[in-house]
Design a protein that fits this description.
Blueprint (H helix, E strand, L loop, with lengths): L2 H8 L3 E3 L2 H9 L6 E4 L9 H4 L1 E2 L8 H6 L4 E5 L5 H9 L4 E4 L4 H14 L3 H17 L13 E7 L4 E2 L5 H8 L3 E2 L14 H5 L3 E5 L7 H8 L6 E5 L1 H5 L8 H8 L6
Parallel strand pairs: 1-2, 1-4, 2-3, 4-5, 6-8, 6-9, 9-10
Antiparallel strand pairs: 6-7
């Protein structure tokens, strides 16, 4: 790190309430500036040991955060509660709230952070690398032209909850050449297994998070719908925007053989 970057970093005291963005701050060479994170900010992994843990994304300890005297708190309109953002602002904390449903939204967020935190050059490099990986994934799972595979992406069990439109995961599925089986619905709807035939699902993706689906849960679906291919997928690379996107290509290569041409 250059002397000028060290001086800029020392002037910032950052708290990150967004697991998907803690890794972005690291990529922008802001490790020393981050003073607090949530218990779910697991990347970079050593931060859970060396940073102050301020609670969770939905239940942050506001007094603990304020005591850290942050110069900027980084939040997200989906991950974090509006009332917590309001309370922090009323306490005099500066809060940046991101809104990320698309790759364009992610680019806006990175540019915003780069301007707020004087990281323009590093942000430009990060955006270039992310764009390269993102472009390479275009239609990666579209094996039959004009016939996108219909995917039901499950994030929860009892009740089953799926991913619908206006979400980052929906954007990624579409970019990969898939048709989201719940694209006609909004956000994270509850679905029943009996709906899979009606939805004409080709594939079910069972995510590793927030619910950690296992092989036994695949059996629950295949017993009813043996014709549907159900796959366990890495929830982080599908749902975490930012540098986790670099790992999505490897996951796509792993599941691609299951997609029939």
């Amino acid at each position: 790190m250059s002397k000028s970057n060290r001086n800029q970093t020392s002037s910032h005291r950052l708290i990150c309430l967004v697991p998907s963005l803690s890794e972005t701050l690291y990529a922008l060479d802001l490790e020393d500036a981050v003073v607090g994170i949530t218990r779910y900010c697991v990347h970079p992994p050593n931060w859970l040991e060396i940073k102050t843990i301020i609670g969770g994304t939905k239940d942050p300890k506001l007094e603990k955060m304020i005591a850290l005297k942050p110069t900027l708190v980084i939040a997200n309109d989906e991950e974090n509660r509006k009332e917590d953002v309001v309370a922090l602002r009323e306490a005099g904390c500066r809060v940046y709230v991101s809104h990320i449903e698309t790759f364009s939204d992610l680019m806006t967020c990175i540019n915003d952070l780069s301007e707020l935190l004087q990281r323009t050059a590093l942000a430009k490099k990060l955006i270039t690398h992310l764009t390269m990986h993102y472009d390479r994934l275009k239609d990666a799972l579209l094996t039959t032209p004009n016939r996108p595979p219909k995917v039901l992406y499950l994030i929860w069990r009892r009740p089953y909850m799926a991913v619908a439109q206006n979400t980052w995961i929906d954007h990624i599925l579409t970019h990969l050449g898939c048709l989201n089986a719940c694209s006609h619905l909004s956000r994270y709807p509850v679905v029943e297994l009996t709906q899979l035939a009606e939805l004409k699902v080709d594939y079910v993706f069972l995510s590793s998070e927030p619910y950690s689906f296992k092989e036994k849960h695949i059996d629950e679906i295949t017993q009813v719908y043996p014709e549907i291919t159900s796959l366990l997928v890495d929830g982080e690379v599908f749902s975490w925007y930012g540098p986790r996107l670099f790992h999505l290509e490897q996951e796509v290569q792993r599941i691609a053989p299951y997609f029939k041409s």
